[in-house]
Design goal:
alpha+beta; Rossmann fold; Tumour Suppressor Smad4; 2 domains; ten-stranded mixed sheet; six-stranded antiparallel sheet; 6 helices; kinase; ATP-NAD_kinase_PpnK-typ_C; NAD+ kinase activity; NAD kinase
Length: 299
């Protein structure tokens, strides 16, 4: 007998809750913000919008379903099941935070504070959850299958990301490495830079786009569902031993980017989550490609 669907509500601690945890009381939090020219009222209002949205979505879960909640900080310890319908209540970035832990489950993005989020990934208002939940669990649900980027090291460590993966120094030092492209005759190039960014069409609306615009690149950035990645080297430095020829490009099927570390320590992390980084040491190689898994985002 198959299990009933389970609604997994993904949320994050609000700024107001973080302030209370740090300062103890509403009054102390208000004093702290006032001393910095901010009002606690706006922070509390956003908190209330978020919690009201979460409560509305929870109340919309069918009575025959199971449901649970998981906070962003606990995603790496949460076990998602094949029967889950994942409902992300919050900002666009929270969808990206959850994506790398999923294996094909449908995802509904709920905008907890409309007007403050771009709504690229959290496309729906809370009042649509009652209709969307059973729809997402059905076989005919329409979804966008969004491309993800994958990094695999030579010792089999693996990292997935929905937006982008950064490989470079953890601080402000210079990263040294050799960069090579799979499937081409272009020779690998020793480089010194502030890091390499490899991202998807979803990521092309964020950090990746800022690099693209900064250098007035003529690359055609991929769309979110395109099975292609764009990559950029940040601030490559020319010297007698390092080059600046391979600084941007696109990766399609069968193409990958290889980076062999020539520094004491580099890191690789996805979607801006530095706390979940891979540690890379001298001589180690990391390979970045289009991931086989995709995020299934419900229309």
């Amino acid at each position: 007998m198959s299990l009933a669907p389970r609604a997994v509500l993904v949320h994050r601690t609000t700024e107001y809750e973080e302030l209370l945890a740090r300062h103890g009381t509403h009054g102390q939090a208000a004093f702290f913000l006032a001393a910095r020219g901010r009002s606690v009222d706006a922070v509390r209002e956003r908190h209330e919008h978020n919690r009201a949205a979460l409560a509305e979505v929870a109340g919309a879960v069918p009575l025959t379903w199971r449901q649970t909640r998981v906070e962003r900080a606990d995603l790496d310890r949460f076990l998602f099941g094949p029967e889950d319908v994942v409902v992300v209540v919050g900002q666009d970035g929270l969808v990206a935070n959850a994506a790398k832990y999923l294996t094909g489950q449908p995802v509904i993005g709920i905008d907890a504070d409309p007007g403050r989020n771009p709504g690229v990934l959290v496309r729906h208002r809370p009042d649509r959850a009652r209709r969307l939940l059973p729809y997402a669990a059905g076989a005919g649900a329409a979804v966008d299958e969004l491309t993800m980027v994958e990094a695999v090291t030579d010792d089999a460590q693996r990292l997935l990301a929905l937006n982008e993966i950064y490989v470079g120094p953890a601080g402000h030092q210079t990263a040294r490495y050799t960069l090579g492209l799979d499937g081409t005759d272009v020779p690998a190039e020793p480089q010194a830079s502030s890091g390499v960014l490899v991202g998807t069409g979803t990521g092309a609306t964020g950090w990746l786009r800022s690099l693209w615009e900064q250098r007035s690149s003529t690359l055609a950035l991929p769309a979110p569902a395109d099975a292609r990645l764009a990559w950029f080297v940040r601030e490559a430095w020319p010297s007698p031993t390092t080059g600046t020829t391979l600084v941007e490009g696109l990766l399609g099927a069968g193409r990958g980017l290889r980076l062999t570390v020539e520094s004491d320590r580099l890191v690789a992390f996805g979607d801006g989550v530095e706390s979940d980084a891979l540690e890379l040491t001298w001589g180690q190689t990391i390979h970045l490609t289009v991931a086989t898994s995709r995020l299934r985002l419900v229309h």
